[in-house]
Structures are given as C-alpha cells and as structure tokens.
Design brief:
Shape: globular
Structural class: alpha+beta
Largest sheet: 3 strands, antiparallel
Oligomer: single chain
Strand content: 15-25%
Bound molecules: zinc ion
Distance between the termini: 11 Å
Order of helices and strands: EEHHE
Helix content: 40-55%
Number of helices: 2
Radius of gyration: 10 Å
Number of strands: 3
Number of domains: 1
Length: 57
C-alpha cells in the first residue's frame, strides 16, 4: 500500500478540522499552502509545512 502524506490543520489551528491527505506529496503541500492562505490568511512556505506539519501515514 502506498504511503500517504497527511497534513492536519489542527496542529496549526485548534479550531480548524481541515485535513489534507494525498499520495502525492507535492499535491498535499500545495493544497495545504492554499488552505493556510485562504482560510487563515497565513503565508506558510512549502518548506515550513514539510518540516513542521507534514506526516507520512
Ligand atoms: Zn485550517
């Protein structure tokens, strides 16, 4: 079974239940970056997401 890359917005914002999960790492990062900007007004770089929030499940 392929590994999935998961990013749980709860690790960033206690009130947000947004979860991104994709087998494509770059897609997961891209969706999460967009979510952070549109919903939370935060500019989070792909590097920050990868380093701090991305989990492999
Ligand atoms: Zn969120």
């Amino acid at each position: 079974m392929a590994q999935a890359h998961k990013l749980d917005c709860e690790s960033v914002s206690a009130e947000c239940r947004f979860i991104v999960q994709s087998e494509d790492e770059s897609e997961a990062v891209e969706l999460a970056t967009k979510h952070m900007k549109e919903v939370h007004g935060q500019d989070v770089t792909a590097e920050e997401l990868r380093a701090e929030h991305l989990q492999v499940v």
